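ingest -> validate -> predict -> emit
validate: passed (alphabet ok, no gaps, 331 aa)
predict: started
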Amino acid sequence: MAMSIPRRRLAAIVVAPFLGHAAKAQGWPARPIIFTIPFQAGGSADLLARLVAERMTPRLGSNARIVVENRAGAGGIIGSEHVRRQPADGHALLLATPSTHGTVPALQPATTPYDPVSDFTPIAILGRAPIALAVPKDSPHGDARALIEALRAAPGRANWGSSGIGSVGHLAGELMALMGGGLQAVHVPYRGGPGIAEALAKSEIQFAWEPLGSLAAGAKDGLFRILAMGSPNRHPLFPEVPAMREAALPGFGASTWNLMLGPRGLPPEIVGRLSSIVNAVLAEADIITRLAAAGIDAVSDSTPGRTAEFLAAEYAKFRDIVQKADLKISS
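emit:
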């Protein structure tokens, strides 16, 4: 015979988990919040994180404090894994990028110690930035279509660059090759955006895919030319430059992004509060202006749900590119 549970006790059992979350949220933050950037200091992602952290702090309360901490290494895996292992109490946050939660896990699933989607709690989309297709200033190719036709006519003869194997620029180039019908060119990985900009200025490579923030200044100074944007639309910094999908490859899409994540199991009350505060910060006019100057488009209308959908879709896209292009990283 089944044992019945008194109504009062049953109600307590059902409500108890929610009371636990509410209690955590009421006492939060109880100590400094550590916002981990899984890369070295400097660069647009670092700027974004520090601006957001600075403006979030007073909105969290008079005694609140957010400490930005750089934990670089292994393409962002070290810092990401550190946050994954922290208690899910709202005192550990992560700045996620296409590298940490897209390209590296897609390329190295066996050696990535976390699942980029299920092992984290999505909070907000902080910013997006297009990936740009650039060529040397003396390149004979006046637009993206001409470049693609030249690559088809001379397979394997052109050298192209990205800021590293597994970078979002690397996979943008592989996506162009796939959508262009199997284009062949020699990939030359560099260590970051400055190396790409210098290589373009010296005509050491015939084209490159790199986040706009790393190329904008050099392109404005005439050191090299930008032929197309990987994002769906044209960018305000270069309104004359078409999107790749309108210039040559319909359906093409590649951009870089930054998300705020926490460890898996973060209480919904804390997630909601963080998301609301982040959106308010990113809607401030001076923040929008400062980020735009760094090539970042601030996002101030995301939700945790839409952030989760975006992350899952981006990871699936990168994994699909890796599989179709049969990309492998030799050990």
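The beta strands are 33-37, 66-70, 92-96, 120-136, 159-162, 186-189, 207-211, 224-229, 255-263, 297-298.
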